Amino acid sequence: MGLFIKRIKECKYFIGIESGPFYLAGSILGYDRVIGLEKHLRFNHVPINYEKIDIKFYVKNSVKKKIEEFDGR
What we know:
- This protein is an alpha/beta fold.
- 40% of the residues lie in helices and 16% in strands.
- The protein has 3 helices and 3 strands, in the order H-E-H-E-E-H.
- A 3-stranded parallel beta sheet has the order 1-2-3, with helices on both faces.
- The protein is globular and about 35 Å long.
- The termini are far apart.
């Protein structure tokens, strides 16, 4: 687990599905630096604010655009 935490700390952003690593990354990096990939916006039950992309309606380069938005902050 220590190596996994170290790797997350080295990341600028984390992109993933709702899972333990996703929430770990959010707590380490901050939820303003994670993107949740979901199907039918299933994360809505989570009381944490972060960027989401619905993979059912994925548009080419949408993750890239989100990261560019993050970098522009």
